[in-house]
Design a protein that fits this description.
This is receptor protein-tyrosine kinase. This protein has 15 helices and 47 strands.
Length: about 950
């Protein structure tokens, strides 16, 4: 809701007497109330909320004849049914001219052939309201039309739309679907224009969906509607007997003169008096046809007269009332006139290869050999080796060879394969040999263990495994003793500490007020966090500069402070305030920017650390990475100027707009993040703190990677602190190898991207909920992974699991992830299947054992959901074990329809199932 106030304010000099000073502002306040009363509520300063202290920005008048009118507009979020406004004057001489209270709406609009009604904006300026459109006349839904109404009364991010039905064409200017005129047609829904009727067809009426064929012309059921109508072919020509004896007749003919405008002419032979012993070459079964112009008929009786009819047919012959044909009468010869052909006139096919055997087995390779048939009926041209995973014969592969042996590579380790061989002769392919099954070996270190490995290799491998086991036991004992001396944080509940800290290469719990470990000292240099590779442009670590100011000068543009106007403080950071403001550069339009300021009195180290982020950010230029406008270093306060992102951090934005986006829009956000990370990875930059809180969202819902600070002094509750010699690790977002060995690579960033995907699809839900860091680490090491968020597409959840592969070399790279997301966006139907959680999630070791709760009443009370107790009792659900079998549909049936409450209850049900399973076994792994 907006409040517009017009007022004038008198200057102090006009006050009677000699006023040394006077108030030049007044306060605008409001009080929300759910019930209307005749009298406003009594004035109580603590009951009213301050909207703003308003000053006369346009000026105060000093002459009674020249009054200056000021106009100020403020807004408030609406949370109740009614609101009272109050103006408080504490000494200013003001004259209120008018007060206007109003709200914004997105106007009625027709777009994508869908009509969207006038839609009020949300309760807050940052709120987004979703409007569903209705199709215009003679249109149907292609994808559900959704338009987002932003807080400033503008439509944004149209998705889906309608398409014109058959017989109507799209008028984009008027956004209407118009009838096809006579002589035109449109046979399918879409944006295609009506087309003229093809040859030999007509459409006498408006709105035709297809054109009718002229008399004598037809259209096959499989023919497209936009090709000309065709007709049956003419009859074959010059039917001739080429050979005849006592049991065989050979016929040939010429194709018809006209084929009816088609290219699918075939022939059919009808033989009077032929019995079941007669065969045809090429074969003819029942009424099937063939496409050659000659035929051989065998198995006839001697001295018998046969009548043969040959018909030419095509795809529309079955629609014609009459068929044209040619016929001929032939009498077979007497039995002694010619050499009688033996009854078995077909040449015998090739026989089967012999002695197929395995000659070598390796981890990913198997060799085999065989012998040719004993009596091949013709020369062998080649062999085909067919192989497949046992049980998956339909998904086989083949290779061709002229030798009697073959080696098949690229196989999976420890997998049973089936092998078959056949030969090809001049008479055709032979039969496959019987399947031969064999398991591949297993790769261990630089050697593999296969069937033909010798004993020495086995001893070496066994000794290697034993050594690793012994080292693991020693490390475990050492860690057990070291853990007894951990600091106070480990004596608390593990969930009290949100990060783990490294000191001297060891993992420690974070103290409540930890000492700051410097990133670098004056005159020293640190090693970059990346390994340079060949690339047209590479990230340069600012810490490699002996003079940090040189990095600032090289990578960041200096901006004169006079070009910057600070409008409002929108947040606070570790170094100072974060503000919204305007940047007005000469010759360029004014732009809204975000301004980070360095608090006065900061140390030189704090100044360098503050500007280090700018020298990092200044090296990047990508639509999905936050853009640095410049820095102010030659005046105070020192400032970093970046582009302004209206919707703030992604995690907060998603929580505020829970459930308001379509899946495709969420996938689009993921694509933005993955694209930005692909760019950073190609620049050889490792982010190390990728999380939804470090992704910003602008008004067009474009997501951009932010937060490039590498060494910062932060409060103990902050999760995103690193140093090059140790520091805090955001456990919930960090890959296991980075936690255990401080091994940060692009692959560890890929793990973090998987967690961000989970945050986005879960609308900002906290990863691993209220588990402690130690529980998270132990669960991941056991192989547990986060479950699929509610309504998450299976394809997206599978991509998350790929990002969470324990072996970092098995994770996809960012380029592959972007390609996968692009494919999903291009084929929205691939997102329709919702992921079913195939596994249970690990439990925090200190989590409440829900299986010990005695009743549904206690369980709901633990969730603060006792309001639904009657719903469960009415359905006869009184035992906690029965609750563990419920799903989302069951909750809706029980009358629990609020999305947030469903998510909270389903999360607890998921924990219940896991705890019941853990009581019976160790757990379920991904």
């Amino acid at each position: 809701m907006y409040v517009e106030i017009k007022f004038s304010m008198r200057d102090c000099s006009l006050f009677p007497g000699t006023a040394l000073s006077c108030k030049e502002t007044f306060s605008l306040l409001y009080y929300e109330f759910d019930a209307a009363t005749k009298e406003p509520p009594f004035w109580e300063s603590e009951s009213y909320k301050l909207i703003d202290r308003i000053a006369a920005d346009d000026g105060r008048f000093t002459n009674n004849n020249e009054v200056i009118i000021n106009t100020e507009i403020r807004s408030i979020p609406v949370t109740k049914k009614g609101v009272y406004f109050a103006l408080r004057d504490q000494g200013a001489c003001i004259s209120l001219l008018s007060i206007k209270i109003y709200f914004l709406t997105c106007p009625e609009i027709t777009s994508a052939f869908a009509h969207f009604p006038t839609t009020p904006t949300g309760a807050a300026v940052t709120s987004i309201e979703q409007a569903t459109g209705t199709c215009v006349d003679h249109a149907r839904v292609d994808r559900e039309p959704i338009y987002l109404c932003t807080g400033d009364g503008k439509w944004s991010l149209l998705s889906g739309g309608c398409i014109c039905v058959p017989g109507y064409q799209a008028n984009h200017d008027e956004q209407t679907c118009d009838l096809c005129p006579p002589g035109h047609f449109k046979h399918r829904a879409g944006e295609l224009a009506c087309a003229g009727c093809p040859e030999h067809s007509a459409a006498p009426r408006s709105g035709s969906t297809e054109c009718r064929c002229d008399t004598g012309y037809y259209r096959a059921a499989t023919d497209p509607k936009d090709i000309p109508c065709t007709r049956p072919p003419g009859k074959p020509r010059n039917l001739t007997v080429n050979f005849v004896d006592q049991s065989t007749v050979e016929l040939s003919w010429l194709p018809p003169v006209q084929h009816g405008g088609r290219s699918d002419t075939t022939y059919r032979l009808i033989c009077d008096f032929c019995n079941n012993h007669v065969s045809f070459t090429p074969p003819q079964v029942a009424e099937e046809s063939f496409n050659t112009t000659e035929v051989k008929i065998r198995g006839l009786s001697p001295v018998t007269t046969y009548r043969f009819q040959v018909m030419a047919e095509n795809g529309v012959s079955n629609q014609a009332p009459h068929h044209s044909y040619v016929d001929i009468t032939v009498t077979t010869e007497a039995a002694g006139s010619f050499k009688v052909l033996p009854s078995n006139t077909h040449p015998q096919g090739p026989s089967v290869v012999r002695n197929v055997r395995i000659t070598s087995v390796k981890s990913m390779e198997i060799s085999l050999s065989w012998q040719p048939p004993l009596e091949p009926f013709s020369n062998i041209e080649m062999y085909e080796v067919r192989y497949y995973v046992k049980g998956h014969e339909s998904n086989s592969s083949s290779i061709l060879t002229t030798k009697e042996e073959s080696t098949l590579g690229g196989l999976q380790q420890r997998t049973v394969y089936g092998f078959q061989v056949r030969e090809k002769t001049t008479s055709g392919w032979g039969e496959y040999s019987s399947p031969l099954y064999k398991m591949t070996g297993q790769l261990l270190g630089t050697a593999y263990v296969g069937e033909d490995d010798n004993t020495q290799v086995r001893i070496i491998v066994g000794a290697t495994i034993g050594t690793f086991v012994l080292v693991g036991v020693i490390i475990g004992v050492v860690l057990m003793f070291l853990r007894r001396g951990t600091d106070e944080c480990n004596k608390k509940q593990p969930s009290d500490c949100d990060t783990l800290e490294y000191r001297n290469g060891e993992v420690h719990g974070v103290l409540e007020n930890p000492p700051i470990v410097q990133t670098h000292t004056a005159g020293s240099m640190t090693t970059p966090l990346f390994t340079p590779v060949g690339h047209h442009r590479t990230y340069i670590d600012p810490h490699t500069y002996e003079d940090p100011n040189q990095a600032i000068r090289e990578f960041a543009r200096e901006i004169d402070a006079s070009y910057i106007t600070i409008e409002a403080i929108i947040g606070g950071g570790e170094f100072g305030d974060v503000c919204k403001g305007k940047l007005t550069l000469p010759g360029r339009p004014e732009m809204t920017v975000a301004i980070k300021t360095l608090k006065p009195g900061s140390s030189d180290k704090a100044r360098v650390d503050f500007l280090t982020e700018a020298s990092i950010m200044g090296q990047f230029e990508h639509p999905n990475v936050i853009f640095l406008q410049g820095v102010v270093t030659r005046s105070n306060p020192v400032m970093i100027i970046t582009e302004y992102m209206e919707n703030g951090s992604l995690d907060h934005f998603l929580r505020v707009n829970d459930g308001k986006f379509q899946v495709l829009q969420l996938v689009g956000m993921l694509r933005c993040i993955a694209s930005g990370m692909q760019y950073l990875s190609e620049m050889n930059y490792v982010h190390r703190d990728l999380a939804a809180r470090n992704v910003l969202v602008n008004a067009q819902l474009v997501c951009k990677i932010a937060d490039f600070g590498l060494s910062r002094e932060i409060e103990s509750h902050t999760e995103a602190a690193y140093t090059t010699r140790g520091g805090k690790i955001p456990v919930r977002w960090t890959a296991p190898e980075a936690i255990a060995f401080r091994k940060f690579t692009s692959a560890s960033d890929v793990w973090s991207l998987g967690i961000v995907m989970w945050e986005v699809m879960g609308y900002g839900e906290r990863p691993y909920w209220n588990w402690s860091n130690q529980d998270v680490i132990k669960s991941i090491e056991k192989g547990y992974r986060l479950p699929a968020p509610m309504d998450c597409p299976e394809a997206i959840y599978q991509l998350m699991l790929d990002c969470w592969q324990k072996e970092r070399n098995h994770r996809p790279n960012f380029s592959s992830i972007v390609h996968t997301l692009d494919s999903l966006i291009r084929t929205p139907e691939s997102l329709a299947k919702v992921a079913q959680n195939r596994c249970q999630t690990a439990l925090g070791l200190d989590s409440t054992d829900l299986t010990q709760l005695g009743s549904v009443d206690e369980w709901l009370a633990s969730l603060k959901m006792s309001r639904y107790l009657e719903n469960f009792e009415h359905a006869g659900l009184t035992e906690v074990q029965a609750v563990a079998r419920l799903n989302q549909r069951d909750l809706t049936t029980l009358g629990i329809t609020l999305v947030g409450h469903q998510k909270k209850i389903l999360q607890s049900i998921q924990t219940l199932r896991t705890q019941y399973a853990v009581n019976m076994s160790e757990g379920f792994l991904v």
